[in-house]
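Cullin-3-A isoform X1 (Drosophila lebanonensis), 1018 aa
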Amino acid sequence: MNNRDQRPNPYVAPFSSQQFGHNNHNNNAQNDLNAQAHYHNNRIVAGSNNFNQLPSSPNVGANQAPSFQLLSNTRNSRNALGHSHSSRAGATGNSPSHASSHNSNVGINNLAQPPSSHHSVLNPAAANLVVGNSTTGSVQISLQPPPGFPPLPQQQQQQQQQQLQLQQQMLQQQQQLQQLQQMQLQQQQPPLRPAPQQSAATVNNSQRRIRTASRSTRAVSNSNSGVPPVANVNHGGTSTGTTRLREISRKYPLWLPEYKRRAFNASMDEKYVETIWASLKNAIQEIQKKNNSGLSFEQLYRNAYNMVLHKHGNRLYYGLREVVSEHLENKVRQDVLESLHSNFLPKLNQAWTDHQTSMVMIRDILMYMDRVYVQQKDVDNVYNLGLILFRDQVVRFSEIQKALREKLLGMVMEERHGEAINHLAIKNACTMLITLGINSRTVYEEDFEKPFLTQSAAFYKFESQNFLAENNAGVYIKKVEARITEESSRAALYLDKDTEPRIVRVVEEELIKKHMRTIVEMENSGVVHMIKNSKTEDLACTYKLFSRLKEEGLKVIADTMSAYLREQGRMLVKEEENGNTNPITFVQNLLDLKDRFDQFLFHSFGNDRIFKNVISSDFEHFLNLNTKSPEYLSLFIDDKLKKGGKGMSEQEIETILDKTMVLFRFLLEKDVFERYYKTHLAKRLLLNKSVSDDFEKNMISKLKTECGCQFTSKLEGMFKDMSVSNTIMDEFKSFVNNNNLSLSGVELTVRILTTGFWPTQTATPNCNIPSAPREAFEVFKKFYLDKHSGRQLTLQPQMGTAYINAIFFGRKTTDSDKDKDGPSSSSNGCTVPTTTRKHILQVSTYQMCVLLLFNNRDVLTYDDIHQETDIPERELVRALQSLSMGKPAQRLLVRNSKTKTKEIDPTDEFYVNDAFVSKFHRVKIQTVAAKGESEPERKETRGKVDEDRKHEIEAAIVRIMKARKRMAHNLLVSDVTLQLKSRFLPSPVFIKKRIEGLIEREYLARTPEDRKVYVYLA
């Protein structure tokens, strides 16, 4: 154990020949010995039945220590077993030569065994321990005189016999001894602990305490006042043993020295105290002058120890304070003041370093005062006292404090302007201020950090105004980033680590927070300008800078971006409403806008949650501004899933479908989309226009993931009907062949559709089918109804297709003046042939009905065609536009109109284009893409959607009430809305109407006590 952690014993010198920091193993075991022993010859035999271990703790204080207790019997109260500076008792092993001739019994009571590493007067490690008694055995200890002394005279057998008799006598006096001991202890001093119980082997009638010094255990004082323990003498009866003890002590005075009643006087006279203090004061002053090489630290430590031990710690403590304060005031402060205008900071740092070094040395000398007096009086320890004095006398002296602050702040400002400074000097000064705070940053904060932050705020406030006036947003942001990096590096280099986040916050406050709106809204360079010009890197820098302000800063950018995005979305909606864009272009523009902002989201904004939510919210807002969005989105998907879709690869189609699903999630009326999607899917399946069944099923799977099985159950049923229809047609063909039936030259294919799955019209559309295909259908109808009795077949002409064999005879010369819009003006530049040509035309059922009319007439007006075919007006217009105004290579009819617009008038005339030319034998006539439903059709669709919603709302109400049994109106409306929001957002008024309807049909009932509460009727 290091000597710095031990308290020396007051009975011996605290240091051996070794100095601080070394382990001393010479006579430094400190134990309390209460000796009650009867000495005969030169050997002591100790027998005991009570070998008890006293409590031992690694933290032995000033009033506690492990001790040996030996009981001795002597008449002379002045004789006490111990040791002095000049001689000490030594313990040796048991020698056979002495054991045979010299015997003396000693009763040992409560022998407390110290750690084996300690050396004591009676060293247990050198004793001969003989285990023998009932419980703990007996201990046999041989004591030898020190080397150089004559041996003890030999004793006869008779004396041994006397010794045994003496032991028997002493046993009878045991009770008397205990009483005498208690009385003596009460008279002399308060006992350290209750007197131990005497054993039967005790032969002593007096008790003494012997203390030995130990460098490896802590000194123990007799009371809280620090007075050293004294040897207690208990007078007992007389015996021959006492006489023999006196004879031995006279013959060997060094071996058994006589001590006074107390080892030290209880107090020191003032003159002696001042003498000791004068030596300590001189030593402290020499240390401060760096002349400590000739000092004896051992003697200085001993002097300080004695002063504290004898209750003069107050004189020592405040004397030290006076000396250090005087030195700092008269010497250190004056030296620093002289250097205020030259070499100030290095001089102050040197004075601080010297002061630290001297206080460490002084602390080592006064270590005992730190451990005893400082703890008892609850005052600052020596080193902290030196810090406080240096702080008050030097650093916080008004002139020095002001000069230090101005110097540090000035050096920082110089570096901000690009000048080189002494970083180490500033770092040492800041470290000094932090150390002077003594486990607190108060000194550093008050003397430097707070003025530093205030000065920095003023500096950057002025600089921000200049930056904004001279630069655009992009340059300003880069300058701010550079300043933040500089301040962070500066703080990490020579300021306290806790200053870094504080100075960075000041820069952020002055350069960013106070100018957020100005930066993002700066004309021709702000966030909107960056978005318009796709400046991804500048946006990324802006985002990185504003993210320092957490959500507050990012919200400013997000709000600015949101305003621009909503403006762009409203423009797209307005263009569609004005008729400037068709549904496919409208949706494609939305996807392009979404792709653009997704690029900003991933590359500029780090996929930040705030920006992601803002973009989604904005698209949901303006997508639902247009009530036609569900229909247009379905038309867009229909366009991409049709065959021959603009030459896109399968991967491109898959990517577009994924993007479309993103827009689909923003729709609030998903049930409206479902109705339109069913219509468009039906056409693709029935007209065999789907690019692939795999793509169709994949799209249905995506919808199923988003909306659940109920949403796609009917779509999956449509695919099932197509499979069943193929089977039925195979059976029909076998039936025709087996019965030799005639179909009037028509190859008929019929698709049997389940009414609940397909978007068929309840009322069959009017259409006069030509005679040949109508007769073929009647044959199939009879076949099917015979096989499936009870079913009905309703023809749906709007969903059919036809293949027509057409013959073109070439253009007539008389038609040249009449044909204004004919193929002669087409872009292919081909010569009009005059020979006959045959083609197979793939057309819709309505187009077939129109074309077959020209077998009987050459020219027909629009009104004539409408009257002959009875096709719905909207579908007829689409059919005529496809046949006469489609691609030049697909114009089978020629329109003769008084206007040049694409709108068909009732008086427009149509005739067959005999000059039709195509390099393909099979020609597919594309139907003009629909611009969406007409207003009457849209109202009809909306009515069907509302009807479906009634059933869905009622079903949701019944499900909820069946589970809850009883609910209040507002809570029921909330639950219904939550359950249906994945398909559409029902209004509270609509839900209330459906509740009323269920009450009328006795599914629900109001409670008598509260009419706003409903109960479910089972």
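The chain has a mean pLDDT of 75. The longest strand covers residues 801-808. ok done for today
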